[in-house]
Amino acid sequence: MMFFFFLHIRKCINSVTSVVHLILTGFLGFRSEESRRGLFGVLLTTYLLILLGNFILILIFACDRLLHTPMYVLICGLAVLDIGITTTIMPTMLISVPFVPCFMQMIFHMGLFTTECFHLALMAYDRYLAICKPLYYPNLMYNTHALKLMACCWMAGFFFATSCVTLVLRFPFCRPITINNCFCDIVSLLFLACGDIFITGYILLLVGLSVTFIPLLYILFSYVRITSSVLRIPSSKGRMKAFYTCGTHMLVISVLFVIAIGVFISDKIPGASMDIRIVGLIMQNVFPPLMNPVIYCLRTKEIQNSFVKMLKKFRILPFSVQEY
């Protein structure tokens, strides 16, 4: 089904444009060869760290059957999304890009980002059930149910993405082929379209705000309920540990959602800096995937122990390490 959809998208693209290649300008403020090399080095190092951290998280999950529980299934699914998002949007700056691959990049980026928003809400729902309804949790959340809910997140994410792309494909593309961005996003591409794009621009804004605000509001609601339950924990040490874990998670979520909302709104603000928007897009797509393995791997005792077991199993640690 997905194959036929992409064939349809390609046919629509060929029917609305004669553009062969697009130019990605990258950062307008980084034009010198030295600054571009420095930026490339930073982004490449960050990308490799994201791949390393998230692949380690997936490998730990695959090697330890004790982690095959709904919470860790969701964490593993988040790692897959983080790898997919960063791999989709890490282009080489200042190059020409074929038009069809640019559209494919836009679809996958939108679909994966929207899926991650819904996935984070699903993770908050899982933690809400585990902390606030522990007696009902085994009946309400189990592995197959978690996988079905994850599949629903993916379908919803790509449904919104394909709907937005269909709106953009209604227009012919006849303006200059330069995109003021470091990857193909739908708003930058819409600016190349000819015709009245005013209503379409606001529809895209409404969709973007909906797929960020609705999951964010549910996450905040879940964490308010979780906080009220944590406050009833008699042990002060237990409360501090719970608040520390929730606090770091909320920090990453806040960066993702707040910056995403800011990027959506910046398109409608006259005189907004394009470089600031590009920085926001990079932070939105790079910072959470970089920090998620740290939060879920280094801050979770079960994953720490599994990581040590895996190192000993593959003889990476030649000596005995006590599990903590």
Automatic annotation (TrEMBL):
Residues 53-296 form the G-protein coupled receptors family 1 profile domain. It is found in: Cell membrane. It holds the Pfam family 7tm_4. InterPro entries: GPCR_Rhodpsn, GPCR_Rhodpsn_7TM, Olfact_rcpt, Olfactory_GPCR1. The chain crosses the membrane at residues 12-32, 38-60, 72-100, 106-125, 146-169, 189-221, 242-266. Keywords: Cell membrane, Disulfide bond, G-protein coupled receptor, Glycoprotein, Membrane, Olfaction, Receptor, Sensory transduction, Transducer, Transmembrane, Transmembrane helix. GO terms for molecular function: G protein-coupled receptor activity; olfactory receptor activity. It comes from the Eukaryota. It is a multi-pass membrane protein. GO terms for cellular component: plasma membrane. The keyword Repeat does not apply. Its main location: membrane. Belongs to the G-protein coupled receptor 1 family. This is Olfactory receptor. It comes from Erpetoichthys calabaricus (Rope fish).
